[in-house]
Design goal:
By secondary structure, the protein is mainly α. Helix content is 57%, strand content 5%. Helix 4 runs antiparallel to helix 5. Strands 1-2 form a two-stranded antiparallel ribbon. The protein is elongated.
Protein backbone atom coordinates (compact mmCIF):
# COMPACT_ATOMS: atom_id res chain seq x y z
CA UNK A 1 0.00 0.00 0.00
CA UNK A 2 1.42 3.37 -1.00
CA UNK A 3 1.62 6.15 1.56
CA UNK A 4 1.08 9.79 0.69
CA UNK A 5 2.03 12.92 2.57
CA UNK A 6 0.05 16.16 2.40
CA UNK A 7 1.87 19.28 1.22
CA UNK A 8 0.62 22.81 0.64
CA UNK A 9 1.21 24.07 -2.89
CA UNK A 10 3.21 27.32 -2.95
CA UNK A 11 0.81 29.03 -5.31
CA UNK A 12 -1.82 28.43 -7.96
CA UNK A 13 -0.63 27.88 -11.49
CA UNK A 14 -1.58 30.23 -14.31
CA UNK A 15 -4.46 28.03 -15.63
CA UNK A 16 -6.05 27.80 -12.18
CA UNK A 17 -5.66 31.54 -11.65
CA UNK A 18 -7.37 32.28 -14.97
CA UNK A 19 -10.24 29.91 -14.16
CA UNK A 20 -10.74 31.46 -10.72
CA UNK A 21 -10.65 35.01 -12.11
CA UNK A 22 -13.15 34.18 -14.85
CA UNK A 23 -15.52 32.46 -12.41
CA UNK A 24 -15.28 35.41 -10.01
CA UNK A 25 -16.08 37.90 -12.77
CA UNK A 26 -19.03 35.81 -13.96
CA UNK A 27 -20.38 35.58 -10.41
CA UNK A 28 -20.07 39.34 -9.83
CA UNK A 29 -21.73 40.18 -13.14
CA UNK A 30 -24.53 37.71 -12.43
CA UNK A 31 -25.16 39.21 -8.98
CA UNK A 32 -25.22 42.78 -10.31
CA UNK A 33 -27.59 41.85 -13.14
CA UNK A 34 -29.91 40.02 -10.75
CA UNK A 35 -30.03 42.96 -8.32
CA UNK A 36 -30.65 45.46 -11.14
CA UNK A 37 -33.36 43.31 -12.71
CA UNK A 38 -35.07 42.76 -9.35
CA UNK A 39 -34.98 46.46 -8.51
CA UNK A 40 -36.55 47.54 -11.79
CA UNK A 41 -39.31 44.92 -11.55
CA UNK A 42 -40.13 45.81 -7.95
CA UNK A 43 -40.02 49.54 -8.67
CA UNK A 44 -42.42 49.14 -11.58
CA UNK A 45 -44.89 46.99 -9.67
CA UNK A 46 -44.65 48.19 -6.06
CA UNK A 47 -42.91 51.55 -6.09
CA UNK A 48 -39.47 52.93 -5.34
CA UNK A 49 -39.64 52.64 -1.53
CA UNK A 50 -40.63 48.98 -1.56
CA UNK A 51 -38.01 48.23 -4.21
CA UNK A 52 -35.27 49.81 -2.10
CA UNK A 53 -36.28 47.82 1.00
CA UNK A 54 -36.40 44.59 -1.00
CA UNK A 55 -32.95 45.21 -2.50
CA UNK A 56 -31.59 45.95 0.97
CA UNK A 57 -32.80 42.53 2.15
CA UNK A 58 -31.25 40.99 -0.96
CA UNK A 59 -27.88 42.54 -0.10
CA UNK A 60 -28.10 41.44 3.56
CA UNK A 61 -28.95 37.89 2.50
CA UNK A 62 -26.05 37.93 0.06
CA UNK A 63 -23.63 39.05 2.79
CA UNK A 64 -24.89 36.26 5.07
CA UNK A 65 -24.33 33.70 2.32
CA UNK A 66 -20.80 35.04 1.73
CA UNK A 67 -20.01 34.77 5.46
CA UNK A 68 -21.37 31.21 5.56
CA UNK A 69 -19.28 30.34 2.50
CA UNK A 70 -16.10 31.71 4.07
CA UNK A 71 -16.77 29.81 7.30
CA UNK A 72 -17.44 26.60 5.39
CA UNK A 73 -14.23 27.07 3.41
CA UNK A 74 -12.17 27.53 6.58
CA UNK A 75 -13.79 24.46 8.12
CA UNK A 76 -12.99 22.34 5.06
CA UNK A 77 -9.41 23.66 5.03
CA UNK A 78 -8.99 22.64 8.68
CA UNK A 79 -10.38 19.15 7.95
CA UNK A 80 -7.87 18.73 5.12
CA UNK A 81 -4.93 19.86 7.30
CA UNK A 82 -5.97 17.52 10.12
CA UNK A 83 -6.57 14.66 7.63
CA UNK A 84 -9.99 13.95 9.14
CA UNK A 85 -13.17 12.41 7.70
CA UNK A 86 -12.89 11.71 3.95
CA UNK A 87 -9.48 13.42 3.81
CA UNK A 88 -7.81 10.90 6.16
CA UNK A 89 -6.41 8.60 3.47
CA UNK A 90 -7.82 9.53 0.04
CA UNK A 91 -6.78 7.28 -2.85
CA UNK A 92 -4.63 8.76 -5.58
CA UNK A 93 -6.68 10.03 -8.50
CA UNK A 94 -9.97 10.16 -6.58
CA UNK A 95 -12.44 13.04 -6.53
CA UNK A 96 -11.33 13.69 -2.94
CA UNK A 97 -7.80 14.37 -4.16
CA UNK A 98 -9.17 16.66 -6.87
CA UNK A 99 -11.14 18.54 -4.21
CA UNK A 100 -7.97 18.87 -2.09
CA UNK A 101 -6.08 20.19 -5.12
CA UNK A 102 -8.79 22.82 -5.53
CA UNK A 103 -8.03 23.92 -1.97
CA UNK A 104 -4.31 24.20 -2.76
CA UNK A 105 -3.13 20.89 -1.24
CA UNK A 106 -1.29 18.05 -2.97
CA UNK A 107 -0.71 14.39 -2.15
CA UNK A 108 2.94 13.45 -2.53
CA UNK A 109 4.04 9.82 -2.43
CA UNK A 110 6.39 9.05 0.43
CA UNK A 111 9.73 7.40 -0.23
CA UNK A 112 9.55 3.68 0.54
CA UNK A 113 12.84 3.92 2.45
CA UNK A 114 11.80 6.96 4.41
CA UNK A 115 11.47 6.39 8.14
CA UNK A 116 8.17 7.57 9.52
CA UNK A 117 8.67 10.44 11.93
CA UNK A 118 6.03 10.82 14.65
CA UNK A 119 4.44 14.20 15.12
CA UNK A 120 6.15 15.74 18.15
CA UNK A 121 4.22 17.21 21.01
CA UNK A 122 4.37 20.94 21.49
CA UNK A 123 7.36 21.80 23.66
CA UNK A 124 7.15 24.58 26.20
CA UNK A 125 10.06 27.10 25.92
CA UNK A 126 11.47 26.21 29.36
CA UNK A 127 11.35 22.48 28.60
CA UNK A 128 14.06 23.03 25.99
CA UNK A 129 16.59 23.51 28.77
CA UNK A 130 16.11 20.05 30.30
CA UNK A 131 16.24 17.84 27.20
CA UNK A 132 19.21 15.42 26.82
CA UNK A 133 21.82 15.93 24.11
CA UNK A 134 22.06 13.66 21.07
CA UNK A 135 24.63 13.35 18.31
CA UNK A 136 23.85 13.64 14.61
CA UNK A 137 25.66 13.31 11.34
CA UNK A 138 27.80 15.97 9.68
CA UNK A 139 25.71 19.11 8.99
CA UNK A 140 25.11 20.50 5.53
CA UNK A 141 23.78 23.88 6.71
CA UNK A 142 25.10 26.08 9.52
CA UNK A 143 23.39 25.52 12.85
CA UNK A 144 22.40 29.19 12.91
CA UNK A 145 20.05 28.55 9.97
CA UNK A 146 18.16 25.87 11.93
CA UNK A 147 17.62 27.77 15.18
CA UNK A 148 14.68 29.93 13.94
CA UNK A 149 13.11 26.83 12.37
CA UNK A 150 13.30 24.93 15.65
CA UNK A 151 11.96 27.83 17.71
CA UNK A 152 8.97 28.38 15.44
CA UNK A 153 8.17 24.68 14.87
CA UNK A 154 8.55 23.38 18.42
CA UNK A 155 6.46 26.22 19.88
CA UNK A 156 3.74 26.38 17.24
CA UNK A 157 0.03 26.29 18.03
CA UNK A 158 -1.18 23.02 16.47
CA UNK A 159 -4.73 24.39 16.16
CA UNK A 160 -4.20 27.92 14.87
CA UNK A 161 -0.93 27.59 12.91
CA UNK A 162 -1.45 26.12 9.45
CA UNK A 163 2.17 25.90 8.32
CA UNK A 164 4.02 22.59 8.05
CA UNK A 165 7.61 21.70 8.91
CA UNK A 166 8.33 21.33 5.21
CA UNK A 167 7.11 24.87 4.56
CA UNK A 168 9.35 26.22 7.34
CA UNK A 169 12.38 24.40 5.95
CA UNK A 170 11.61 25.66 2.45
CA UNK A 171 11.16 29.22 3.73
CA UNK A 172 14.47 29.34 5.62
CA UNK A 173 16.68 26.99 3.58
CA UNK A 174 15.16 26.92 0.09
CA UNK A 175 13.52 24.36 -2.19
CA UNK A 176 14.42 21.86 -4.88
CA UNK A 177 13.47 22.33 -8.50
CA UNK A 178 10.19 20.45 -7.92
CA UNK A 179 9.20 22.77 -5.07
CA UNK A 180 9.93 20.32 -2.24
CA UNK A 181 12.08 21.40 0.75
CA UNK A 182 15.81 21.20 0.04
CA UNK A 183 16.29 19.24 3.29
CA UNK A 184 13.85 16.51 4.35
CA UNK A 185 11.78 16.62 7.52
CA UNK A 186 13.38 13.48 8.98
CA UNK A 187 16.79 15.16 8.65
CA UNK A 188 15.52 17.89 10.95
CA UNK A 189 14.44 15.33 13.55
CA UNK A 190 17.46 13.04 13.28
CA UNK A 191 20.20 15.68 12.98
CA UNK A 192 19.23 19.28 13.61
CA UNK A 193 16.38 19.36 16.13
CA UNK A 194 18.46 18.49 19.18
CA UNK A 195 21.43 20.58 18.05
CA UNK A 196 19.21 23.64 17.73
CA UNK A 197 17.62 22.95 21.13
CA UNK A 198 21.06 22.58 22.74
CA UNK A 199 22.18 25.89 21.23
CA UNK A 200 19.03 27.63 22.46
CA UNK A 201 19.70 26.22 25.93
CA UNK A 202 23.33 27.33 25.84
CA UNK A 203 22.40 30.88 24.82
CA UNK A 204 19.75 31.07 27.52
CA UNK A 205 22.31 30.16 30.19
CA UNK A 206 24.96 32.62 28.98
Amino acid sequence: MKLYSLIRANKYGSPKKMILIVLLKIALIGILLHITWSYHNLETGLGTAVAQVAIMYHVVLLMILIAVGIGLGLWIDRMIRLRSSIFHDPPKGSWTEAFMNLWGYELKEKDANQIAVPEPQMIEPFDLFTMPARRGRKPTFPLERWIPIAMKWENRDTIRDAFTLGELIAEHLGTNSDGSPIVSEQTYYSVWRQRAIDEIRRRAKS
